[in-house]
Amino acid sequence: MSTRRTRVAVIGGGQNCEHEVSLASAAAATAALDPARYQVVVLTIGADGGWRDEGDRPVGLAGAVETLQGCDVALPLLHGPRGEDGTVAALLDLAGVPYAGSGLSAGALAMDKWVTKLVAGAIGIATAPGVLLTAATAATYTWTHPVVVKPVAAGSSRGVARVDRPEQLAAAVGAALALDRRVLVEDVVEGREVDLAVLARPGGARIVAPALEIVVAGGVFDYATKYDGSAVFRVPAPLAEADRKALEHAALGMYDALGCSGVVRVDFFLTADGPVLNEVNTTPGFTGQSQVPRMFAAAGVPYPELLDILIQDVLAGAS
Fold first, then answer.
1. 279 is an annotated ligand-binding site residue
2. N or C: which end of the chain has fewer CB within 10 A?
3. Is residue 11 within 8 Å of 92, Cβ to Cβ?
4. Of these residues, 18, 84, 193, 248, which one is catalytic?
5. Rounded to two decimals, what is the model's pTM?
6. Any idea which positions bind Mg(2+) 2 (predicted)?
7. CATH of domain 6-99
8. Where does 108-126+190-318 sit in CATH, by number?
9. Annotation says 105 is catalytic
10. Residue 267 marked ligand-binding
């Protein structure tokens, strides 16, 4: 007697600067899902915003929704605006399709780095001092010390630049404004870059995977360094017990305050004064070599099993 396979819609791509990164996450997940258990239905959002099926045929939004409603669960692996920011989660909610990951509000809050800073401050988690600029206010900002310039809502370190001299400021702000209407200018934080992954399970249990430390020769974990293989990932990160507990407490605090679901990556700088929050990723990179799968692998949960947990937890909640 044959057992019906679970139909999983894997959604990749996206209409933003992280399109290629998202395609890599979706392709890796598709390849890793057990074909004996899962029937994968691939949907891709093109750089133009159009939806396409596995054969790269345009299906339109209505066709995509019809396809999604024929699936048991969706696995949205969209990074950045018009995807990770809650827009696709809202679409899935309206279509009545269960999905892995955070919902609309958590995605929108976490994608907005300025709002994330406000939430962190409200629950006592430190962030780098910073100011918010727009095209209209950028000229009012005067450089006085090294800062990091970044778009408020982007990812993969796109548009992020460290500014060590005043003559570098205009170009950095311009590059960030090319990706977003708002720009965050933050003080440089000196500390170790440490990521944590939090996974909520049915019943309220939450798992924090072993922390991962990023070591970069040049000191800046920018877009090129993220994907050229030059960064070193140490997992488990060598941490004092007090530092580990402080990081985990802060990661869980942000997860709960933002209302996250599924698996989330929370990035910190570990300074002499304790953790300083960098950002929260509700749809982190998800190839087998990305940070979150590396962290869970260190906990004895290989990549295919992590995907299985995410999908089965959604199905358990939907039943």
1. yes
2. N
3. no
4. 18
5. 0.94
6. 279, 281
7. 3.40.50.20
8. 3.30.470.20
9. no
10. yes
